[in-house]
Write a structure and sequence with these properties.
Number of helices: 7
Low-confidence stretches: none
Number of strands: 7
Strand order of the largest sheet: 2-1-3-6-7
Number of domains: 1
Strand content: 15-25%
Radius of gyration: 17 Å
Bound molecules: flavin mononucleotide
CATH topology: Rossmann fold
Helix content: 40-55%
Shape: globular
CATH class: Alpha Beta
Largest sheet: 5 strands, parallel
Order of helices and strands: EHEHHHEHEEEHEH
CATH architecture: 3-Layer(aba) Sandwich
């Protein structure tokens, strides 16, 4: 099962560049994995999540302390842990990604579900072999782009061995080359989607 986290919040609707990037990845992935399931966490779900306040954290800790992992608050973390492969798509907003995606991360980073601690530090417990991050930005790609780094570190923390990303950059430069850059990025996303490896473990 591929888990697709659809953070393509866009004023462009279906014309979203990030969505085009994601579409290229998903079409290639589906062609390479016929009959396999894609589960999507949609934008509506992401936008419906409330950031954790202290009382909600206390409640979650109390559920964890009695092993109540079936509780709804752990549902997104359980889904993330179970995926064979994960793709995240989100536009480059304010140097990283939309707040709704950051809130989603609060839900999947559940100690006891997606990771745990040992005396040597944090150990990831997710099944996925690969996480791919797909983003598009107005500016050109810079080294150490925060969204790219964030998902790289999150994948490592969750025990996901391989990380790949596509940054479709320079899409708001107004130099007439935007379509070329986006098409190149879509081609790279398709190559990543078509790859057989990095799938499950
Ligand atoms: C709220 C908001 C914040 C943005 N912040 C950045 C930014 O920090 N850096 C950047 O290069 N582009 C930024 N952009 C431009 C978008 O990343 C760019 O237009 C992207 O291609 C939008 O993807 P979409 O077509 O899927 O909406 C921002 C756009 C919006 C709407």
């Amino acid at each position: 099962m591929l888990l697709f986290i659809d953070g393509c919040l866009s004023q462009r609707g279906e014309e979203s560049r990030t969505r085009r990037l994601a579409g290229s990845f998903l079409a290639a992935w589906r062609a390479a994995h016929p009959g396999e399931e894609v589960e999507t966490v949609g934008a509506e779900t992401l936008l419906s999540l409330r950031p954790f306040a202290p009382a909600a954290l206390d409640e979650r800790d109390a559920l964890a302390s009695v092993g109540a992992w079936e509780a709804p608050v752990f549902a997104l973390a359980r889904q993330f842990r179970a995926a064979d492969e994960i793709a995240v798509a989100a536009p480059f907003w304010d140097l990283s990604f939309p707040a709704a995606v950051r809130t989603y991360i609060e839900y999947i980073c559940a100690r006891g579900v997606t990771y745990h601690y040992t005396d040597r530090g944090c150990v990831g417990d997710c099944r996925a072999g690969r996480l791919t991050y797909l983003t598009s930005g107005g500016d050109v790609e810079r080294p150490e782009s925060l969204g790219v780094l964030y998902w790289r570190q999150l994948a490592a923390m969750c025990g996901i061995g391989e990380y790949a990303y596509v940054f479709a950059g320079g899409l708001d430069l107004g130099d007439g080359q935007e379509e070329v850059r986006l098409a190149d990025a879509c081609a790279l996303a398709a190559r990543l989607g078509a790859r057989e490896d990095g799938h499950g473990r």
